[in-house]
Amino acid sequence: MAQAVVIGAGPAGLKAAEELAAAGHDVLVAEAKPSVARKFLMAGKSGLNLTKDEPFETLLQAYGEASDWLRPMVAGFDAAAVQDWARELGQQVFTGSTGRVFPTAMKASPLLRAWLRRLDSAGVQIKTRWRWLGWDGDALLFGTVDGQKSITPDVTVLALGGASWARLGSDGQWAQSLQKKGVELAPFAPANSALSVDWSPHMQPHFGAALKSVRWLAGELDSRGEATISATGLEGGGLYSLTPALRDGADFCVDLVPDLDAASLRQRLAAKSSKTTLSQWMKKSLKLPPQKIALFHEMIKRRALPKSHEVTIIKRLPIVGARLRPMDEAISTAGGVRQSAVDDGLMLTALPGVFCAGEMLDWEAPTGGYLLTACMATGKWAGRSSAEWVNRSA
Q1: Could you please report the per-residue DSSP string of 310-379?
Q2: 3-state secondary structure of 130
Q3: Which residues of the chain have pLDDT under 50?
Q4: b/e string for 265-301 if b means 16 or more Cβ within 10 A?
Q5: Distance between CA atoms of 4 and 26, rounded to whole angstroms?
Q6: Disulfide check for 197: which of 128, 233, 252, 337 has CB 3.0–4.6 Å away?
Q7: What whole-number distance in Å separates Cα of residue 98 and Cα of residue 54?
Q8: Domains in the chain, CATH or no CATH each
Q9: Per residue in 276-315, pLDDT tens?
Q10: Whole-model pTM?
């Protein structure tokens, strides 16, 4: 019998297992999928963003309303600690111009392989194709290729992910089991989401084109990151941080010339020859690329916006009809186990001896290394807390 069971072999679960093993406990990690850390590996395909190298208070602000809750956990495994952890596993890292930290190899697989070797050396057992089915009395029930298995551990850490990218393991089905036990949950919602826009044929030539040097605005949030025009709408890091406001129905606009103030824009417009079309002027005077000009015309047609308001529109162009993509396509999700449902050690108050970690907790953050940092930080916190709980209960 395993003394400790961790359910979910993503970064949060593996970090919790590492802490439990370091405290001298026998650990079994149960993973529903055929291999571990599938979302971690997928994220690493385009360059694994480990963390954000910035002052602690700045880093913490990325977690919004959950920043006070996560403060001690992130302080216990902050950006510097993430980098040290990677180096300890033999993976050198570098910091990009925006402060984002990546492994020099730019891939997740070498880091994961080294981590799994270290866990194996620590005696951690990992069972794949073990899908958690809930509880049978005090026992954890699993569906496996060899039939149902039940385990009654001394302590359990749940690290089951959110409710996006179900094909990689985060399907949110665990919520039903916890609700039956009286655990308070916040509804799942997309975070770091792309947007759907039903384009006219006018936009088709611009699919795949990037919108750079723009400022996106939604409610009180704004972002200077870029986005790409896709066949289904808009996607890219410049949009993801706006998801909370867009979920609440905030108006969505873009400033096509964020480095040019309204007064300067008016002066340039006043100098426009009457023979010069608006598109020609935007191209020659404002140096706007074709995709920006196309987006401008696409939106003013939808709203029948008067061209006499060009300055206002260029500085605050409404993106009409934009809506969040389906939740399963989102990079991450908000919602999950509420702060009120756990104690300071992340143990469920309704289920003594059961701890939670990672994205299944009710917090969210934009991309840029914040997600992985908090997943590992909460994993370490839950692992250490669960180890201490076992020791006190012995």
Answers
A1: HHHHHHSEE-TT-EEPPGGGSSEEEEEE-GGGB-TTSBBTTSTTEEE-GGGBS----SSSHHHHHHHHHH
A2: coil
A3: 1
A4: beeebeebeeeeebeebbbeebebeebbbbbbebbbe
A5: 6
A6: 233
A7: 10
A8: 4-190+328-393 (3.50.50.60), 195-324 (no CATH)
A9: 998 999 999 999 999 999 999 999 888 776 656 888 899 9
A10: 0.94
